[in-house]
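Worked example

This section walks through a single chain of length 250. The input is the sequence exactly as stored; nothing has been trimmed or padded.
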Amino acid sequence: MEFFDINFCTGRSRTGTYKPASSREDLLHAMDALGIQEALIWHIAQFEGAAPDGNRLVDDLTKDHPQLHACRALLPPQADEQEAADLFFKNMKNSGAVALRLFPGEHRFLPNRTVFGEFMDQVAERKIPVLLSIGRGIDWPELYEFLAQYPNLVCIICDTGVWGTDRYFRPLIEAYDNVYLETSLLSLGDGVMEAFVRDYGPDKLLFGTGFPDRIPEAPMLQLLHADMKDSEKEAIAAGNSRRLLTEVRL
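Given that input, the structure is written out below as tokens.
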């Protein structure tokens, strides 16, 4: 089975306890050792440092490599930290970036239409996935408001467990066609993915590891041994992520 990791971080965190992959060679070595064929890469500097600097670092690591896909951090447009929309999307295309991350808490902005206006409508029209991390800068009320204002956005909810949080994410899965769930913390619960697939099918789950903060083998083993069809496992492991990224229009 092939794996596409939708939640793979590079760079050395100021708080992390695990050894990161900080170079392209490190990235590919770690992926090869784990049996991960492709990954959507983001850089810890996009969260802990200046987002434009982090974007340049992740672009340098991933550019022109078929296994590595760049995820760009997005800032609000009002403080002249972000290019105008046309230039932003042009630069995304030129760099090979295919997805966006928002860190509202760490970067001190509110994720809503007052801040992003029609820019986020263009993101939705272009089917660019937006990854939002529970625990890295957004909480559930903000996420609910954001999606209510941009209901067509392709949104991937990352870093959420299952102990009660399914009461938060299940209504979003049911309400919005383009909301997806990343799996790295779902491995904490036995039978969680099986229950999700039973209720919603396999197409809304995207395999992720949360590397290097989490042990990648946990979500891999859980999926490999899940009580579901092989075709469902293959869709979650890589097929769904590849499909989403082929739909991006830049």
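What to look for: The longest strand covers residues 4-10.
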